[in-house]
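Re-run with default settings, no changes from the original entry. Doing this only to confirm the output is reproducible before filing.
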Amino acid sequence: MLKEKNIKFPNKRVFGIWLIWIGLIVIIGTIFGGKFMINPIIFTIGFIVGKIVIFRMTFIKKHLSYGPNSKFQSNINTISILMMFILIFLFLFSGKYIMMDDFRMTWFGALLATAIHFITSTFVYGKQLIILSILLILNVFIGIFNSNISFDYFGYIDGLIKIIFGIFLLVPAKANDR
């Protein structure tokens, strides 16, 4: 790991790689989604492999991280991830869509939960995630209220937004904002 003092967001670049990865997985999953909109097998395998490779491999941490997150950031990160899964549960399993096999609304619920959880991640990876969250939320709501537009467009847009922000996070704007 690169060691520097007073780095607000030491793992912003690692998270940038994650956003690029998961953006690609969403796009590939959408290409092969068929009736499921986003292929659940591609998404699940891609998500698990990405989490293991990107967040657990020392090679990536060594070359992209500026050190460990603060205790506060680690706690917030855990809360943020838990919040995402709770929101997914609430959006999917307490609503009518999962029972109706409405995969469009199921995926919009999952994408919305993910977008909302990025708001709390701003404390861990930087304020740019608020903009990321807003854009992803807008994409979901446009998709929900325009059922005549193919889900594919919204899946591709979601993936592209994540990829663009991932690239942006790889190149920090200010030295103290890394």
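Residues 121 and 139 are 19 Å apart (CA to CA). The radius of gyration is 16 Å.
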